[in-house]
Design brief:
With 271 residues, the chain is an alpha/beta fold. It has one domain (3-270): Aldolase class I (TIM Barrel, Alpha-Beta Barrel), CATH 3.20.20.70. Helix content is 45%, strand content 14%. It is built from 13 helices and eight strands. It has an eight-stranded parallel beta sheet. Helix 12 (238-242) links the parallel strand 7 and strand 8 (249-252). Helix 6 (112-124) crosses helix 8. The protein is globular and about 45 Å long. It binds 1,3-dihydroxyacetonephosphate. 1,3-dihydroxyacetonephosphate binds at residues 13, 101, 186, 191-192, 230-233, 251-255.
Length: 271
């Protein structure tokens, strides 16, 4: 499969933003700024806080977009105060979640091990995990970028490999795994800083991630898997990023809170 066959995915990560009253006005403005037909060619997704998922789901469904959670627990149920399971997400119709975002790793003790467990639980429940990896500034400066990324990604992909066929109620098997997982490269130093990775820096790591996918899960998976870039992506730099051979979309924080900016980015993904 060539890069052009991988459908572009633009995912907004609202983080802990967007009050209920803001959601409908956001989508009204967003839809108005979107070029006709974009959502037929580009997957458009919004990761909202748990309490805003119902409203986000209703607003996105009505318009041909999708809603996602920002996190989930890897156990099915039990004494895990404050947590939400994959089945609880599917109870309300959520079929995608972020997993292992660097803010979860940094502030909420998310580890490679928990990210791997969450990935398997998500896929087993027909929830697509958007698995986030990326190095800190110190790690980049010390030349450890590839090592960190391969470690983070390796934990997830090896867990999947060792687990064997993951069957969920839709019957996904490893052959279709590339449809059941999305990878996001988010260099921590680029998140919320206004300092995006250069096209060369981003493509270099994306190409490396595809190589790690190939090594662990094989070429069919590697060629088909979508790899998103995240970290100060904005309307000015998105076209360049998406023109790179191994960048299949964006995971967008700040700019996804501005309807016109995010619509412009989705429009750019179609051209
Ligand atoms: P920014 O786009 O605000 O840099 O955030 C990126 C991000 O963390 C998306 O998950």
């Amino acid at each position: 499969m060539t890069a052009s066959k991988r459908k572009k995915l633009l995912a907004g990560n609202w983080k802990m933003n967007m009050r209920l009253a803001e959601i409908e006005p956001f989508f009204t403005a967003f839809s108005a700024a979107l070029r006709p037909g974009v959502s037929n060619h580009v997957d458009i997704l919004f990761a909202a806080p748990f309490t805003q998922l119902h409203a986000t789901l209703a607003a996105t469904r009505a318009r041909g977009f999708a809603a996602a959670a920002q996190n989930m627990h890897f156990e099915a149920s039990g004494a895990f105060t404050g947590e939400v399971s994959a089945m609880m997400l599917t109870d309300i119709g959520i079929r995608t979640t972020l997993v292992g975002h660097s803010e979860r790793r940094q502030y909420f003790a998310e580890t490679d091990d928990s990210v791997a467990k969450k990935t398997i639980t998500a896929i087993s429940n027909a929830v697509t995990p958007v698995v986030c990896v990326g190095e800190t500034l110190e790690e980049r400066k010390s030349g450890a970028t590839f090592q960190v990324v391969s470690h983070q990604l390796g934990a997830v992909l090896n867990a999947l490999k060792n687990h064997g066929p993951v069957q969920n109620r839709e019957g996904f098997y490893p052959g279709d795994l590339s449809d059941s997982i999305v990878i996001a490269y988010e260099p921590v130093w680029a998140i919320g800083t206004g300092l995006s990775a250069t096209l060369e820096q981003a493509q270099e790591v994306h190409g490396f991630i595809r190589k790690v996918c190939d090594e662990i899960l094989g070429s069919e998976f590697a060629v088909r898997a979508r790899i998103l870039y995240g970290g100060s992506a904005n309307p000015a730099n998105i076209a360049g990023l998406l023109s790179q051979p191994d960048i299949d979309g964006g995971l967008v924080g700040g700019a996804s809170l501005k309807a016109a900016d995010f619509a412009a980015m989705c429009n750019a993904a179609m051209s």
